[in-house]
Design brief:
heterodimer, A: 327 residues, alpha/beta, eight-stranded mixed β-sheet, disordered N terminus, B: nine-stranded mixed β-sheet, two-stranded antiparallel sheet, 10 helices, 22% strand, eIF3f (chain B), translation initiation factor activity (chain B)
């Protein structure tokens, strides 16, 4: 159908969420914090906007055999029930909570690939409950970039191919801006019910001077990630060293063979072949995947961003305090 | 609660006593519930005038019912009978229980103003499932010209053994929001928000709020001094208390404080919510002062540079 191909070409520009979906996600993640929870997003895919109109949470699964079938049953049951009450039961992605921004894991990528097989366009909404104490609504919509997905499918995460496509760690995830919309009815209700007050709890949170626990945890995680990064780099160094060693071995073997051949020629015998695939030193070494390294790098950069943001806020507060003291 | 008394005869004035029941004293509703109800009302099938559904939540030890979640149940209503899809209700309940076993059935809701005749039957059905359910009405039609959400408990009026009617008594209702939701509250009030505010924008808006508050207080004090407004002693004392709660430090020692690492108690802004702020904020500490912050920003910038360099090295390494 021509309409299908047209839609496929339109880029996803913005994710439009209903206030209801936002509230439900926040409620579910906050209730179970610090455990990590997930849920399904339902909505519509319209042109360049992905609308999320509702969502439902997944139960926390223990890892056993029956859980998989149970989970699928639960999902079907919920979708069927929601269909009866006219909720869009079109899956457009899933949401998950994360701890202090550390959501870039291999599982996330795998889940994305799974979803991508069935749904053309899906997003993952990540909510960070620990940042709400800083007065920030940490809701992010993520998508894997197309180029990265192609590479991942073809198992091409080696240095050569990445350089070819000019893909670096920034290009794995793509963040999409979120818009929040509400029906007129519900916004009328909210306006009436909650009195307009000049300040709110969240202003209070933002103006609080002590940010130490948050910063400390951020730094801790970042240090952990640095360890991860350095171990990845060590892996690569090891690989290159082995490769170099193998190559020198190959050269040496080749030299010997050539000499042998020359002596054989002198003696009038058949020259031996210059290659010997059965020799173990000719076995090509597998290059380790760069995926982990890239993910760790992503995490570190998000921690850095958090720290910068919070430090910026602290500067504001400190100067405010200074001004108060001056008179 | 008065014990039920039976009156012996049918003739003459009858005495009606409500039968004793452990009814809840008040209810608390979370914002999510209101959103769910409004959303399901908007999506209702064309021929239905109102929507009905189940409320889930928990009962606190002091008798307050905390309503945390809700889902709509298909029903059909005509002039004299009401039919509720009971199986659907049980299925959804089971599914919700899988996610959150602590949320139990606490009552039911309906849109529309006031309690109608059909509601009694539905209420009876829910009373069979849970003891003394709460009935929530959400007036989506704005019949009184304002948004009204009311909660009722019912008590049975009986004459002897004969059940006469159910009396719905209104109980006080409180709308509650999680702290995290309050962060995004501005977003929830309007019909469309273009983008979510990030940290610095939020900071800016908080500062502006603070500024507006201080302006208001300033204006009030000015007005009182110029005798434009009658002075209120309570407010005056409040303001005096707040301003004096700011620790007075000499400029030299404050500079040292600002630049070194000492812990100090500090103060907050002045406004009419101060009584709530004050006990909490005056015990704040400046734990991360200027230099620490600068050090952190420096560290994070270095880390970022390091990552960029490392990545270049990794991918640029050629195998010869």
């Amino acid at each position: 159908m021509s309409t299908v191909t047209e839609e496929a070409a339109v880029q996803l520009r913005v994710v439009q969420m209903e206030g209801l979906a936002v509230l439900k996600i926040i409620k579910h993640c906050e209730e179970f914090a610090p455990a990590l929870v997930t849920g399904q997003l339902l909505g519509l895919d319209v042109g360049s906007v992905l609308e999320v109109t509702n969502c439902f949470p997944f139960p926390i699964r223990e890892d056993d055999e029956e859980a998989d079938a149970d989970g699928a049953n639960y999902q079907l049951e919920m979708m069927r029930c929601l269909r009866e009450v006219n909720v869009d039961n079109n899956t457009v992605g899933w949401y998950q909570s994360c701890l202090l921004g550390s959501f870039q894991t291999v599982e996330l990528i795998e889940t994305f690939m799974n979803y991508q097989e069935n749904i053309r366009r899906c997003v993952c909404i990540v909510y960070d409950p620990s940042r709400s104490s800083q007065g920030v609504l940490a809701l992010k919509a993520l998508k894997l970039t197309d180029s990265f997905m192609d590479l991942y499918r073809n198992n091409g995460l080696t240095g050569e191919k990445l350089r070819e496509k000019k893909l670096s760690w920034v290009d794995i995830f793509e963040e999409i801006p979120i818009k929040v919309s509400n029906s007129a009815l519900v916004s009328a209700f909210m306006k009436e019910l909650e009195a307009e007050s000049p300040v709110s709890q969240c202003d209070f949170d933002r103006l609080k001077l002590s940010t130490a626990p948050f910063m400390e945890r951020n730094l801790e995680f970042m240090i952990g990630c640095m360890d991860g990064l350095s171990s990845e780099q060590n892996k690569f160094q090891y690989y290159y060293r082995n490769l170099g060693r193998q190559q020198s071995q190959q050269q040496a073997w080749l030299q010997k063979r050539r000499q042998e051949n020359m002596s054989r020629k002198a003696a009038g015998e058949e020259p031996l072949p210059e290659e010997d695939p059965s020799n173990p030193i000719f076995k090509p070494l597998p290059e380790p995947s760069r995926l982990e390294g890239y993910l760790v790098t992503n995490q570190i950069s998000s921690y850095c961003n958090h720290i910068n943001g919070v430090a910026g806020q602290s500067f504001n507060r400190l100067y405010l305090m200074k001004a108060l003291q001056e008179d | 609660m008065a014990a039920p008394e039976t009156s012996t005869c049918g003739a003459g004035p009858a005495l009606l006593f409500p039968s004793s029941s452990s009814s809840s004293s008040s209810a608390r509703v979370e914002a999510v519930v209101v959103f769910t109800i409004c959303d399901s009302f908007v999506r209702r099938p064309d021929q239905a005038e109102r929507v009905i559904g189940t409320l889930l939540g928990s009962v606190l030890p002091d008798g307050t019912v905390h309503v945390r979640n809700a889902y709509v149940v298909p029903h059909s209503e005509s002039a004299d009978q009401v039919a509720l899809d009971i199986e659907y209700h049980h299925n959804m309940y089971a599914s919700h229980q899988k996610v959150n076993p602590k949320e139990v059935l606490v009552g039911w809701f309906s849109t529309g103003f006031g309690v109608s005749g059909g509601s009694t039957l539905i209420h009876e059905f829910y009373s069979r499932e849970v003891q003394s359910p709460i009935h929530l009405t959400v007036d989506t039609g704005f019949t009184m010209g304002e948004a009204s959400i009311k909660a009722y408990v019912s008590s049975n009026l009986s004459l002897g053994d004969r059940h006469l009617a159910a009396q719905f008594q209104e109980i006080p209702l409180d709308l509650k929001m999680l702290d995290a939701e309050k962060v995004g509250f501005e977003m929830l009030k309007s019909t469309m928000v273009e983008k979510l505010p990030n940290d610095l924008e939020g900071m800016e808006s908080s500062m502006q709020n603070l500024y507006a508050l201080i302006d208001e207080i300033y204006k009030y004090v000015d007005d009182v001094v110029e005798a434009r407004v009658a002075p209120d002693n309570k407010i005056g004392r409040f303001i005096a208390d707040t301003v004096s709660s700011m620790p007075k430090l000499s400029p030299a020692s404050f500079d040292r404080l600002f630049n070194d690492k000492i812990q100090v108690t500090t103060c907050s802004c002045a406004d009419k919510w101060l009584s709530w702020f004050l006990p909490r904020l005056t015990i704040g500490h400046i734990s991360l002062l200027l230099q620490d912050n600068l050090a952190l920003v420096y560290l994070s910038s270095i880390t970022r540079t390091q990552i960029a360099v490392a990545e270049k090295l990794n991918t640029a390494a050629q195998v010869l």
